[in-house]
Design a protein that fits this description.
Bound molecules: phosphoenolpyruvate
Number of helices: 10
Structural class: alpha/beta
Shape: globular
CATH topology: TIM Barrel
Helix content: 25-40%
Largest sheet: 8 strands, parallel, barrel
Number of strands: 8
Order of helices and strands: EHEHEEHHEHHHEHEHEH
Strand content: 5-15%
CATH class: Alpha Beta
CATH architecture: Alpha-Beta Barrel
Length: 251
C-alpha cells in the first residue's frame, strides 16, 4: 500500500505578526519537498495572507481548528465554510484545543464532520497523556479515540478515505523536547490502523503522521518508522533550516 508522505507545520499561536507569517510562508514555498506533500497551519487570522503568499505553489494551507456548527452565536470561532478558498484542510482534535476548549471525542467528530461537509481535508489528532501511558492505557485510549471520535463522524460526510489523515501525537511529547521513539510511534500507528479497520474504514489507506517534538535531529527516525507516513511539526516548523531538514528526511 503506497500512502502519501506528508509534513505539516502547525504554527500554533505564532509568529507574532502577519508580516512574519507571510515571510514564513515564502520560506515554505522555497523548501525543497519533491515526493512529500507539504502543508502549513497558520493561526486563523493569518490564513488569508498566507493563502495569498502560497497561491500558485503546491504548499497546502490548513486551519488549526474549525467549529462544528455551520454558523451562529459562537464568539471567536471559525466555521468550516469560512475557510473555502483559503484552506485545503483543517486540523481537528489537537490536544491543546482539547485541553483549552474542552473538546471531547464527540465534539472532535462533529468538527471533522463539519469540515468534510465544507469540502476540507482533515488531519485528526489523537494520542495519550503521560499518566495514561504510565498506567499502560495507551492502546485503550487510542482505541477509544478512534471509536468515539473517528467512528462517530457522519459517514456521509466522511466520504472517501483520501480526505482523512491522522496524527498520532502523544501529549507528553508535544512541545516537551521528549519525542517518542520510532518504535513507540510504529506501535501506536499499527494500533490505530487496526482500530480504523474495525470501524469499517480502510486503515491501510489512511495516512498517519507522528507529532511531538520532531526536530531535524530525530526526523529520520520517524521517516524510517514502520507505518509512519509523515510528521505534524510544531515548534520546529517555525525554523526554516530545521523544518527543511525534517522535510528532507521524509523525501
Ligand atoms: C504540535 O503542535 O502538533 C506539535 C507536535 O508540537 P511540537 O512539534 O512543538 O511538539
Amino acid at each position: 500500500m503506497t500512502r502519501p508522505r506528508l509534513v505539516i507545520g502547525n504554527w500554533k499561536m505564532n509568529p507574532a505578526t502577519l508580516e512574519e507569517a507571510v515571510v514564513l510562508a515564502h520560506d515554505r514555498r522555497a523548501t525543497p519537498h519533491e515526493g512529500v506533500g507539504l502543508g502549513v497551519a497558520p493561526p486563523s487570522i493569518a490564513l488569508p495572507a498566507v493563502a495569498v503568499a502560497l497561491r500558485g505553489s503546491d504548499v497546502r494551507v490548513f486551519a488549526q481548528d474549525v467549529h462544528w456548527a455551520e454558523k451562529g452565536a459562537y464568539t471567536g470561532q471559525v466555521a468550516a465554510s469560512m475557510l473555502r478558498g483559503l484552506a485545503f484542510g483543517t486540523i481537528v482534535g489537537h490536544s491543546e484545543v482539547r485541553r483549552d476548549q474542552g473538546d471531547d471525542d464527540a465534539r472532535v467528530a462533529a468538527k471533522a464532520g463539519a469540515a468534510f461537509r465544507a469540502g476540507l481535508h482533515v488531519i485528526f489528532c489523537l494520542g495519550e497523556s503521560l499518566a495514561e501511558r504510565k498506567r499502560g492505557e495507551t492502546d485503550a485510549v487510542l482505541a477509544r479515540q478512534v471509536r468515539d471520535g473517528i467512528g462517530a463522524i457522519d459517514r456521509a460526510a466522511l466520504g472517501d478515505a483520501g480526505t482523512l489523515a491522522l496524527a498520532y501525537e502523544p501529549i507528553w511529547a508535544i512541545g516537551t523536547g521528549e519525542a517518542a521513539t520510532g518504535a513507540q510511534a510504529s506501535a501506536a500507528v499499527a494500533r490505530l490502523r487496526s482500530e480504523l479497520t474495525r470501524q469499517g474504514l480502510d486503515g491501510d489507506a489512511i495516512p498517519i503522521l507522528y507529532g511531538g517534538s520532531v526536530t531535524g535531529g530525530n526526523a529520520s527516525e520517524f521517516a524510517r518508522a514502520e507505518g509512519v507516513d509523515g510528521a505534524l511539526v510544531g515548534g520546529a516548523s517555525l525554523k526554516q533550516d530545521e523544518f527543511a531538514e525534517i522535510v528532507a528526511a521524509f523525501r
